[in-house]
């Protein structure tokens, strides 16, 4: 399921009333809006193209950039590519198989190498960012891959060669795979000491957990909670509730939410996490406002933060968020929505820059993610197409375990707790 860029998704419920504020219900699975109830449409790709074009002409956020007549397109993918050519700011509108959507949002198990990777700065290697517990790369008795290792060959081909000749093929190897896939993948990688390793791995069944790590740290005599969070998906809500009850019992006074590799997910889950963090600080206040194109302004709504059980809400006045260029969508929504009410200190790199929300809809066996609205916070802020810049800048080397006190990201947090500064306070010599 992991690609170089995670799928960026935010749920949006199609509403047909004037702009208003709504109380947020508990997040739950919702049936996808159907773009057509005519089953005959599924027999003709030409008709599917026409149906989707009619939908986009109404709801697409950059509707004004589209031509009056439908462009020539041989398939849905070609139509979407042309739509994005007309609206250059749109990087996100896409279509995926229904099965892919179910795996992504509902947390179903899937077959994969179980590695989350990113491209190195010089584009010569894949940097291992995370390894899922079910990954064959973790459980191999002979060779094991670690976070921060650099994969330089895949099936005896250099990464640069893959990128030049078959980028999609390389992405597919590290994505979710058909259940029948049992072909071994040969990897060569350099560990952090520069030692070369080679191993063969068979894709295994991965049962993903969005909470990659959690613990409490003692920084400057403060009890600090730490949460590494991978995706805003609905199954993680139960885990989040349990974790925050534990944080509350441990009297956590500061919190680090590590969103370095979190490419997004469901907006309602971002609201849930934000409400656990800030509690009484945000109760009854606006979490997010959705702004559509002028022809669909009646669909504009404001959503309030959730009112959650007092034994799980931390009521914090300050939050530390770890970010990279992979921090996107619902991750940015969480940061932006809390900023009017509590201090949000971002540590790391400028985020991806996706303030656009997606309408998720279904047509036959395909699920469409269409850019339909702009997300803004209670103060109307949200036009961060160039990303959210960090309060304290740190380059991610992916060489430390999650929550390691020696990690420069965590050290920046410690500095800030100590002296409200990104840098360690200079000590004068007596």
Automatic annotation (TrEMBL):
CDD domains: Peptidase_S41_CPP_like. Residues 199-395 form the Tail specific protease domain. Gene3D superfamilies: 2-enoyl-CoA Hydratase, Chain A, domain 1, 2.30.42.10, 3.30.750.170. SMART domains: TSPc. PANTHER family: CARBOXY-TERMINAL PROCESSING PROTEASE CTPA (PTHR32060:SF30), TAIL-SPECIFIC PROTEASE (PTHR32060). This is S41 family peptidase.
